[in-house]
Amino acid sequence: MILITDVIYPPESAKEIARRYLTAPVLPDFLLKRGPYVYATREGIQSITFYELDNARLAEGIRVLGDNMAVYIGVPGYRYEIKPYYELEEGLKMIGL
User: Fold this and answer.
1) 8 contacts: CB under 8 Å, gap ≥ 6
2) Would you say 32 and 52 are in contact if contact means Cβ atoms under 8 Å apart?
3) pLDDT of 12-58, one tens digit each?
4) By C-alpha distance, which of 1, 17, 15, 3 is closest to 79?
5) What long-range pairs does 92-96 form, CB within 8 A, spacing at least 24?
6) Which CATH number does the domain 2-94 belong to among 3.40.50.720, 3.60.20.10, 3.30.70.100, 3.40.1190.20?
7) How far apart are alpha carbons 90 and 48 in whole angstroms?
8) Rounded Cα distance, 70 and 10, in Å
9) Confidence of residue 87 (pLDDT cuts 50, 70, 90)
């Protein structure tokens, strides 16, 4: 499965985001990180990062990413979401198929 973090912040907060990025906790080995991938929107700077992990570590992965995202709380305009995405077979089971 994967967890995705979706982050957005205004351009004027970019320097503070970069400063805090350098102080963010090191991720544990069970999270395989891809990204962040960044682009500009009308709302500001948006980034998305993918984290692959074993299903059995979902709760732990969400906790770790929550701690990681909390480093940025207080930066003006900063918002984030952590979203779990399941493999197709797991998703089908969730809807009774």
Assistant:
1) 41, 43, 44, 45, 46, 47, 77, 78, 79, 80
2) yes
3) 999 999 999 998 889 999 999 999 999 998 889 999 999 999 999 99
4) 17
5) none
6) 3.30.70.100
7) 23
8) 17
9) confident
Asked if residues 10 and 45 have their Cβ atoms less than 8 Å apart, the reply is: yes
Distance CA 31, CA 50 (A): 9
Taking CA atoms, 19 is separated from 5, 31, 42, 51, in Å, by: 19, 23, 23, 22
**Cα distances (angstroms) measured from residue 76 to each of 10, 30, 67, 81:** 8, 31, 18, 16
Q: By three-state DSSP, how is residue 10 classified?
A: coil
How many angstroms from the chain centroid is the CA of residue 83? 8
Residue type (1 letter), 81: E
What's 40's DSSP letter? E
